[in-house]
Amino acid sequence: MIKLYKLTLSEIFTCKLDCEAYGLLNHFPNMVKWWTDQVKEPPTAFSVFRNHFYSAWKVRWCNYNSQHAQTSSLTAYNMLRLSKIQTNKELKYSFAVISPRIVKIEDEKLVFPTKQSKKAQVQLVPKNPTQKTLLEQTQNGYWKIGQIFLTPNWCTIPLTRYLDLTSEKEDALIQKILK
Questions:
Q1: Residue 158 phi, psi dihedral angles, 5° rounding
Q2: How many CA atoms lie within 13 A of 65 on its CB side?
Q3: Of 11, 26, 129, 152, which residue is most buried, by most CB within 10 angstroms?
Q4: Radius of gyration (Cα) for the chain, nearest Å?
Q5: pLDDT digits 0-9 by tens, 78-128
Q6: How far is it, in rounded angstroms, from Cα 73 to Cα 83?
Q7: How many CA atoms does the CB half-sphere of 174 hold within 13 Å?
């Protein structure tokens, strides 16, 4: 029986955003704030919280990809659960959380939908050969992308792979990033 090991790497990349990505970064904190404004007490279950307000979110943020409802509501839910009280504070920073369901890497760029028939492209700037290799391997399907945290200047990208440590092919690919 082959035993697989889960390997997760998180890399921080400097990035350059296009207009669509900047637009999402400006709206995403407002989306999170909208979710927090909907509740009177901290929710007990995420699915109940999200499902209760999802239709209203779709009206308020029409044309945005529904995965942004998922990530903004999850961010709001976690904020509410951590604070145990409703917060009326404005979020001070531009950021977005991008679902792994909608993002892909193409030519060292993150590509994901923002609004109906519009896509953001975020140019990633690899700092070293390892990051360049990880981007190439991810584009070729070797790594699975996790939930991305995006700011105007940088992003974190978690990458996951299940490995058979007895495989020479797997070993060669891992050795390439460890150089």
A1: -80, 135
A2: 21
A3: 11
A4: 18
A5: 888 887 655 556 677 899 999 999 999 999 999 999 998 999 999 999 999
A6: 15
A7: 17
Alpha helices, DSSP H, located in the chain: 19-37, 46-60, 66-83, 129-139, 168-178
Contacts of 156 (CB under 8 A, 6+ apart): 10, 11, 12, 13, 148, 149
Phi first, then psi: give them for residue 130, nearest 5 degrees: -65, -45
Amino acid, res. 157: I
Structure tokens at 67: 């995965």
Which neighbouring-strand residues pair with 41? none
Question: Is domain 4-19+95-178 classified as CATH 2.60.120?
Answer: no
The rounded Cα 59 to chain-centroid distance in angstroms is 23
pTM above 0.70, yes or no: yes
Annotated domain spans of the chain = 4-19+95-178, 22-83
